[in-house]
Specification:
The chain is an alpha/beta fold. The chain has 10 helices and 19 strands. The protein has a 6-stranded mixed β-sheet with strand order 16-15-14-17-18-19, sandwiched between helices. Helix 9 links the parallel strand 18 and strand 19.
């Protein structure tokens, strides 16, 4: 009960007490006036939300860190009476999603629409709604509210950076473009068209070219690159590092990006990730998946966080969407060490497949697990997220020594270096040959 209502009720009671005790007309007039005000205000408040409808339209249920989530709201008054004020309060848990609003002077048989653009700063699955619609009388004595329990969901994908190169490049990995060889077998990959040679089967003849050239033309095929790329992502809880971090409001973030762009003479500004090693692990994995999928490689994924996430290898945009859906909600709270994940999962990989292992764990055991998989003919590349740049105090020297001894290329990702810079530089590798 509001203080204004308590004051008016006290004045109302006092007015009637004075009226009955004194018998003066002025006291009775004051009591009648207060009674009329309270009755009209109460009736007005009860009718304030009648024939009022609120709808929300979500442009898309998918967004990405660095992009915007857009929602459109519409409140409609279908009553013959105007609404002096309406308060809309939103209880969405999407960070920085300020959809609450006060609508004033909504005329009869009219509507008002507005749009909310929320910058997405964190990955995850977030709830949109519920909402509460409030109104009351013109004096603000009584309030009425209506809860709109309908909710929706929006998934924010992790940040994906564009990689200009990745060494070893896609053409140097087994099954890549440089490994394609001409074959006499009929495959799905046509390399070129040549003149028909004695001994060519009829199913090799390319009839459209034959009609144009007016002589027999045959197709020449090449082997299909069959080696798969496997992303192994470390979500072991004991290998996570983080610094004290306070999310930046969108206004301050926009000011910082503008200032940075001015310092860079108008160069494109990058989106900063939170200083949490898990976020860099997830973004690095998503960026590498996009890099190889754009080059028509088959990519799969394996991780163990709160739940087991496994995606069989596939190509194309659909596979990228599957990976982003999975990576949007993973958390670094797994109970399985990364070395055990590699040891158990890599047994079923085919020869010449490639493992891209992404981890912040300084334990050299996962380097040994990659070395064992290399002995079975599985290539390995390590992406090490340096936990010391996230406030940790770990020794990575033994891990790096294991990589160099076994000839495994590895990258170092730091908190203070842009992710695209760390992954586009040359891999660190020993001059020793890789063990088979």
């Amino acid at each position: 009960m509001s203080s204004r209502l308590i004051f008016l009720l006290g004045t109302f009671i006092l007015a009637w007490v004075l009226a009955f005790n004194s018998g003066h007309d002025l006291a009775f007039s004051l009591a009648y006036l207060l009674t009329i005000i309270l009755l009209i205000s109460y009736g007005w408040a009860k009718l304030s939300l009648r024939s009022v409808y609120l709808r929300r339209f979500t442009r898309t249920q998918r967004s990405q860190v660095g992009q915007h989530a857009e929602e459109t709201f519409e409140v409609r008054n279908r009553s013959i009476w105007p609404k002096l004020w309406l308060e809309i309060e939103d209880y969405s848990n999407l960070p920085w999603h300020e959809a609450s609003r006060v609508v004033s002077s909504l005329r009869r048989q009219s509507s008002e629409r507005w749009q909310i653009r929320t910058p997405c700063t964190e990955r995850g699955r977030f709830r949109l709604g519920p909402m509460v619609l409030r109104s009351g009388d013109p004096l603000g004595i009584f309030h009425e509210e209506q809860e709109l329990t309908a909710t929706g969901m929006i998934v924010v994908y992790p940040l994906v950076v564009d990689l200009s190169a990745f060494d070893p490049s896609v053409s140097e990995l087994s099954g890549g473009e440089a490994r394609r060889q001409r074959t006499y077998q009929v495959t799905t990959n046509v390399a070129t068209i040549r003149d028909y040679a004695p001994g060519d089967s009829f199913n090799r003849i390319h009839w459209p070219s034959t009609a144009r050239a007016r002589r027999l033309m045959a197709k020449e095929f090449e082997l299909d690159p069959t080696a798969d790329i496997w992303l192994y992502i470390d979500l072991y809880e004991g290998a996570q590092f983080r610094m004290d971090w306070m999310p930046t409001p969108p206004e301050m973030a926009l000011f910082a990006l503008t200032a940075r762009a001015r310092r860079n003479n108008g160069a494109e500004s990058r989106v900063d990730l939170p200083p949490i090693s898990t976020e860099y692990v997830v973004s690095a994995a998503a960026s590498l998946a996009r890099y190889f999928l754009l080059r028509d490689r088959a990519v799969g994924m394996s991780s163990y966080g709160r739940t087991r996430e496994f995606l069989q290898t596939d190509r194309g945009e659909r596979q990228m969407n599957k990976m982003l859906e999975a990576l949007a909600v993973v958390e670094g709270r797994g109970s399985l060490p990364f070395a055990h994940l590699i040891a158990t999962d890599s047994i079923r990989l085919n020869r010449n497949d490639t493992i891209l292992a992404v981890s912040a764990d300084p334990d050299p055991a996962w380097a040994v697990a990659l070395q064992d998989s290399q002995r079975r003919g599985v290539n390995s590349i390590a992406i090490v997220v340096d936990g010391n740049t996230f406030g940790g105090h770990a020794d990575y020297n033994e891990l790096y020594a294991k990589f160099e001894a076994s000839g495994i290329p590895y990258y170092k990702v730091s908190c203070d270096v842009p992710l695209e810079t760390s992954l586009s530089q040359d891999a660190r590798i020993s001059s020793r040959p890789m063990m088979r």
